Amino acid sequence: MFEYHGWVTIQASPSGDDDAALLERIVERVHRAVRDFDDGDLLDLRWAAGVPVLHLGGMDKHGTAIAPELVDLFTRVGDLAPGSYGLLHVWDDQDPEHDNEFKVYRMARGLVTERGDEHLSPVAPTVMDGYEI
To answer: Residue 131 domain-assigned?
Structure first.
């Protein structure tokens, strides 16, 4: 099973004082990228308190197919909106090297880096007794 949960606060620049017209254009580009990614269970791009926010989440039985596209989408949002920040947590129990841990993709200033997870990993025994691979 492949599980993922994430969010991005979309900003044109790290200052947060974005030109409204520029931010609208960026949000439209992000919307197109999200629309082109049709594998997601939850893909929600909306304005909250005047700020655009993207939420992603879901589960897939075959994570090896969706994982690269999901990380590409997350990275693409950072490329389109270089002031953005957020987190994407993924767990792929079919990953032979990381089947018992979440990975965290951190976006800061639009740049995405991969990190280990200390909150829910190792999955067994932190959140479940065990599972069969």
So the answer is: no
pTM of the model: 0.91
Place of tokens 């090896």: 64
Q: What CATH number does the domain containing 23 carry?
A: 3.30.70
Residue 133 lies in a domain: no
How many angstroms separate the CA atoms of 130 and 29, rounded? 42
Question: 99 and 83 in contact (C-beta within 8 Å)?
Answer: no
Tell me how far apart the alpha carbons of residues 115 and 103 are, in angstroms, rounded to a whole number: 6
Which residues does residue 3 pair with via DSSP β-bridges, in sequence order?
59, 91
Total number of domains in the chain: 1
Summarize the confidence of residues 105-122 as an average pLDDT.
Answer: 94
Q: Is the pLDDT of residue 133 over 60?
A: no
